[in-house]
Specification:
Layout (H helix, E strand, L loop, with lengths): L10 E8 L5 E4 L5 E8 L6 E9 L8 E4 L3 E2 L6 E2 L10 E10 L11 E5 L12 E3 H5 L7 E9 L3 E11 L1 E6 L2 E2 L16 E7 L7 E10 L1 H4 L16 E10 L4 E5 L5 E4 L2 E5 L3 E5 L20 E3 L7 E3 L5 E7 L3 E4 L5 E19 L4 E7 L1 E2 L5 E2 L9 E5 L6 E5 L6 E9 L6 H7 E8 L5 E5 L2 H17 E2 L1 E2 L12 H14 L3 H14 L15 H6 L14 H13 L2 H19 L33 H23 L2 H22 L11 H9 L5 H17 L11 H10 L3 H9 L8 H4 L34 H10 L1 E3 L8 E4 L10 E8 L2 E10 L2 E19 L7 E2 L2 E2 L6 E7 L2 E16 L8
Parallel strand pairs: 2-9, 15-23, 21-30, 38-41
Antiparallel strand pairs: 1-3, 3-7, 4-5, 4-6, 4-8, 8-9, 10-22, 11-16, 11-19, 12-15, 12-17, 13-14, 13-16, 17-18, 20-21, 24-33, 25-26, 26-31, 26-32, 26-33, 27-30, 27-32, 28-29, 34-39, 35-36, 37-38, 39-40, 40-41, 41-45, 42-43, 42-45, 44-45
Helix pairs in contact: 5-8, 5-17, 6-8, 6-9, 8-9, 9-10, 10-11, 12-13, 12-14, 14-15, 14-17
Length: 915
Amino acid sequence: MDHQSASNNGLEVIQLQCEYRTHWLGSDHLRPQFSWIIQSNQRSTIQYSYYIQVGLDSEDWTQLLWDSGIVVSDQSIQVKYAGSPLQSRTRYYYRVQIQDQQGRTSAWSEIQWWETALLDHTEWQAQWITPEEEWHNPQLESVFQLRKSFTLPENISSARIYATAAGLYELSINGTRVGDEWFTPGWTSYTHRHQYQTYDVTKYLQAGDNAIGISLADGWYTGRLGWENKRQHYGEHKALLLQLHVHYENGEEEIIGTDTSWHSAPSPITLASIYDGEHYDARLEQPDWDQPGYDDSLWSGVKVAELAYDHLIAQENWAVRVTEILTPVKVIHTPAGETVLDMGQNMVGRIRVTGIIPANTHYVIHHAEILDQQGNFYRGNLRTAKQAVHYIANDQQDRKINHVPRFSFQGFRYIQIEGLDHLTDQQLLEMVTGEVMHSDMPIAGSFECSHPLINQLQRNIVWGQRGNFLDVPTDCPQRDERLGWTGDAQVFIRTAAFNYNIAPFFQKWLRDLSADQRSNGSVPFVIPDVLSVLDEEKGDTELPASAAWGDAAVICPWVMYLHYGDQNLLQKQYSSMKAWVDYIYNQGSHHYLWNTGFHFGDWLALDAKENSYMGATPVDLVATSYFAYSTRIVRDTAVVLGQAADVKLYSERLEQIIQAYRHEFVTPAGRLAAPTQTAHALALMFDLLEERDQQRTATELNNLVIKNDYHLTTGFVGTPYLCFALSDHGYHETAIKLLLQEQYPSWLYPLSKGATTIWEHWDGIKTDGSFWPDDMNSYNHYAYGAIGEWLYRYVAGLDMDESIPAYKKSKIHPRYGEGEITSASAILEAAYGKIQSSWIEQADQRQLEVIIPANTTADIVLDHAILSSIQENGQLLHEIEGIHNIQEMQSTIIITIGSGHYHFVYQYQPISRLV
């Protein structure tokens, strides 16, 4: 490989990333992983070798920290850094060149960079500080302002701030807010892992006088979380830690950090609460408080907070940002006389009010998801969460405001405004905007089809993910909960990976799961764990763990591996994964049946007994099914990681669990003992049955659905697998009818009631317009959105060969729509590049458009296709470049192809299944 030359031969290396990021500021990875995408103008391109260089100078590539040399390998994702040890607070540049199997050599890629933060906790010289007033009233929910004045000489070359808080913080320098991140430092298991952020503040500083201003709020650290009005889960006082490094052109460095020289004062934000919203009193404003030259002589001091440093970690997750601006679609004057604005979409974020209001105005904005039967504003399902924003203007005449809450987020579609009655409807519409907020994950995929209601369902799924992926995968974003429920996360994670790049998001959350996992291997219901504290205070010594919820410890890392091919993540989570299945193994008197303890079962299933949230499927059947599933995944993980002894151990356990399951839950005649849709779906999906019993079980499942007039009865556990189990066993037509069912209960029924996100209950709004009880009725609860995975993989047909992760080998297998859906398309920006599967069905002809990225292959699976009719771009298959193999198996044609863009047209013979 001539790595000095640049070529223009149709082969190019693009989209370099370090740990999924470009231009990554603030890493504490000692051996980060690199990935790149290959662009080729030829089909069937495979990387033969790669060459990576890492250096300190983007112009000089003679002095390198890592020169990999030519590495003969087709690996182009998750390539681990193998150069000299990295140093703290250093920017590194890297570039890649490749050669393909035909001998073509690419030019060097564009140069990319990442920058390290503090690689050792001993580098923190600053002190944790807390406002003095905070010590007088630890229950105070107001926001404090902290400031520091300092003087800098000229010739500043660069500057970085490393900052975090016990609570939430907002940073400004010389009166300007720094960055576009919100809710920093994010929510982690603070006692074990506490994130800090890195900021390039060079442009904010000036020679001469400067000032740093910080607003400091309770957030998740000391604020109210969970139930029973519990606060201070992690500590009694909010605190700040900040360290500014200023570099000068002469090579010198100056460090300014938090210490007792800082000053503090109350802010105009008199209440900031995750659940309850914010109160802002403009009469308490101190203009220019974060500017140099401000007189802070009347401010109070700060005290040193005795908090640790050894658990500080650089930002792992995607930052929370404002990702979209919505404008209200109409003003509603309700029968009760309320003034309500409809945002047109159930969203998560905040309302910004911009305009002129009279002096001494006090307005209140309440947030809600729906209107009641009479069309009035409805907040009952918020439970104790107030979700209200108060603003009190000062006594200045006709004050122009631009107000938005900064330390609280709300889940809502409708807002009720009190105190602005003097404004016309048009003025309200012009003053109010909605700012959508969530972890700023790059969009990964899209799905659409010929059926408009299914497209709306997909939009609802995406909006539910956006609203609930706010730093942690919350169950809901509006009521007094907003917790990282493990069960919801594991059933939805594969759908989530189709919609967005969730790698850093779930890496961070899974590390918190490991940190909060108990010594016996059990996994709390929510991560970060703030509920066990309540159990401990009640004297509970046996803290509960539930099947399908705790299994997130195993399922989520495995799905991440399948989608991103990151063995490093599997390795880090492996002990946690084993600890969970070992915990189950050690429960009760039977090692291979999980028939003890508390379980949520098939949560909120419609076949539940009266006044029960748990479905009719026996909880021990659900628990043992998941025990087998997780044990299988741990066995497969051991295979990937080369743990031979564990492969043997968990293979033997899996066989014993399956035998115990069959003995306990399958009759000698091969019938499942539990006649529920969920029981049958789990048995089929988790491969728990003898081969002779599988088709009978599938037929029984099909009959259960048909007898229920093509309605589902499943809850959180059964719903994700129902359509898969049907489609995999010859009943795809039933699965399609189930999907397209518009009457309650179904995925489409909520759409008839105006849903723009996924509901917690199939009948959150009942057919008569009444509501489910307020105690548990979220209208933004993403779990049932797990059907999205089936839409991508089975309806559009964009799937993978799971034996070769990260879509190194795709499987394009559209199941088609049984005449009800006549076209579908899915696109995924996968680790190796863009994959597309798009089909159109007309009469007896099908068209399939496929894009497969370079350095990968794919199997195209065509059901009922007539081989002699298949053409690609008007040519017969044997004439086509990129076709590697053709197999004809019964009524199915399998075509193995290399990378490229393909257009297949063929005739098919429909085969009806007699039921």
